[in-house]
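Its record is quoted verbatim for completeness.
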Amino acid sequence: MALFQCSFYSNTLGLSTMMNVIFPQQTTNQIGLTGKASGGRYPVLYLLHGLSDDHSIWLRRTNIERYVSELGLVVVMPEVHRSFYSNMVSGNRYWDFVSEELPSIVQSFFPVSDRREDTFAAGLSMGGYGAMKLGLSLPDRFGAVASLSGVTDPSWFHREFPQEFDLIYGSLEQFKNSPNDLFYLAEQFAMASKKTELYMCCGTEDFLYEDNQRFLKHLQRLEVPYIYEEEPGAHEWGYWDMKIQRVLEWLPLGK
């Protein structure tokens, strides 16, 4: 595998930002890795970080590079700060960045596919929210998305960080039933002709467990198909390192 640490300028954000990219490399004598490469365009996974993290965290806390070495999959890990992958009321347009500009930049830098069947997103906590938002909002562009201990309802963020919440969403009233609300997006998604494949998991000791259960019941009422798994686990990296391996097994690669 090759690791690219990219600094680049974003027209959407009006500033320089960063992403890490894991890229397939065929090797013959690299200890512990065989690698997989092809002459065509590669499927791509946008792997999203959580609230207190950055673009480097998946590489620092998991063995993601080793896990994808035989999959022929490009992994893109962008930096979005504490934006909740949203166009902020008082701040930058991070939703436009991650949903529109970032894929265009990645496709211009690397030979990745633009087919929805080859385009995936996954993330943990705030990144799980971002991944679900991409899948529910853009089913014509994302074939599958995965949420690991995801924030399904940022209302808890409003309770803990009300001023920061208002900088992003304006107010709780403005957030509800908006394109930032996963419950609202799921209702729109239920009527879409194309359906992104959805995967969710959450540890039973996670503080977001009950919120995830409420969102799952909402999907059931809407008859939206999904895969959900739970087992003992908290909001921590041991759990996420285990579950990202499951996500990679689940991704519909090669379709």
Observations:
- The chain has one domain: 2-250.
- The mean pLDDT is 95.
